[in-house]
């Protein structure tokens, strides 16, 4: 079987991976959480473009699927964990300053790997997700790091570790979360997506730096309400999904 390594989608995926590496270096070695955040944002852009280009050029491949997950573990798992760890080291703690407690934030890497492995074998996640998507979790943590370093979000070391655990659990939660993949450009079938994107645009305009974590929290809340309502209507079907 001939395997093509350097296709356009794969190159874009590698760009995503490199952004994750640069973000981790910025956080751990340079203590620059603002640059780390923007590297993760750029990685998310490449993560979108690799799938988009694969569909546009009709070049999907098994190696591309695996490579995408490997890149996502680094960019949206390890790099955000590095940001949280740097936050823990610089934040005041209420009861412990032990560096080994701060290592607990790296649970995010492990659960991101579990989330992506499940996604690769779960054929029910074609139109929606089961659990928080790893890019959303990574961007949430990275945005908190940026706000913290800018002095706009005071957090204790214990709060940083707690955030890592909460996000990690959301990654593997059974909550069905809606996808932003559009089915054509019509309104029917895409109502929630259009409303959510419009709301997100308004939040970006008015909240600026605070918009990213706010949008992701809104995404989690809306998805949870939607999932609970679906479960109430048809618990058997929701449990099977």
UniProtKB/TrEMBL annotation:
InterPro entries: CDP-alcohol_PTase-I, CDP-OH_P_trans, CDP-OH_PTrfase_TM_dom, CDP_ALCOHOL_P_TRANSF_CS. GO terms for biological process: phospholipid biosynthetic process. It is a multi-pass membrane protein. Keywords: Lipid biosynthesis, Lipid metabolism, Membrane, Phospholipid biosynthesis, Phospholipid metabolism, Transferase, Transmembrane, Transmembrane helix. GO terms for molecular function: phosphotransferase activity, for other substituted phosphate groups. GO terms for cellular component: membrane. It comes from the Bacteria. It holds the Pfam family CDP-OH_P_transf. Its main location: membrane. The chain crosses the membrane at residues 37-57, 69-88, 100-117, 129-148, 160-180. Gene3D superfamilies: 1.20.120.1760. It is found in: Membrane. Belongs to the CDP-alcohol phosphatidyltransferase class-I family. This is CDP-alcohol phosphatidyltransferase family protein. The lineage of its organism: Bacteria, Pseudomonadati, Bacteroidota, Bacteroidia, Bacteroidales.
